[in-house]
Amino acid sequence: MVIAPAGDWTRARITEAEALAEPRTMQLYVRLIRAPGFMYTTRMWDRIVVVASGAGIAPVLPCVLQRTVASIFVVWIAHRPESFGPIEQALEESLGPDKLWIHDTATQGRPDVLALTLKAVKKEAAQAMYIVSNLPLTYAVVRGCQAVGVPSYGAIWDL
């Protein structure tokens, strides 16, 4: 298993593993039954907008590819999206060009994510918005959307 320092718990596991003698191994017990993540709640809506930045597209893919929502519009903000392998092609094939905006920060610079999100919500007449991104951007977009009455959800961060 490979883990990244996404929060206090994973950061502590990495620190523990670094303190171990070579090879860097440790025993972890993993639950076999997984509770649904926050993207599971997308099933409550008929029309949603999902915003993802970079690797945040990973938890969005099952929702898109399994078509768990009647209408899903994806805004993916990434630095060189082609570097993520076949993800861009899979999104395009599953959603079509009218349900996908890809913003390449390498060529287009950093966008105003809240403005982009609200534009997508209006275009799609979305009932809700979901975002998978870093903590500051997630909070800013969720709060901005909620301020104008759009039900909005972001990943939970263990601070």
Shape: globular
- Rg on CA atoms, Å: 17 Å
CATH architectural group of the largest domain: 3-Layer(aba) Sandwich
Order of strands, widest sheet: 3-2-1-4-5
Number of strands: 5
Q: Uncertain segments of ≥5 residues (pLDDT<50)?
A: none
CATH topology term of the largest domain: Rossmann fold
Question: If you had to describe this structure to a student in words, what would you say it looks like?
Answer:
- The chain has 159 residues and is an alpha/beta fold.
- It folds into 2 domains: 1-30, no CATH class; 36-154, Rossmann fold (3-Layer(aba) Sandwich).
- Helix content is 35%, strand content 18%.
- It contains 6 helices and 5 strands.
- The protein has a 5-stranded parallel β-sheet, sandwiched between helices.
- Strand 2, helix 3 and strand 3 (100-104) form a beta-alpha-beta unit.
- Helix 5 packs across helix 6.
- The chain is globular.
- The two termini are 23 Å apart.
- The model has no long low-confidence stretch (mean pLDDT 87).
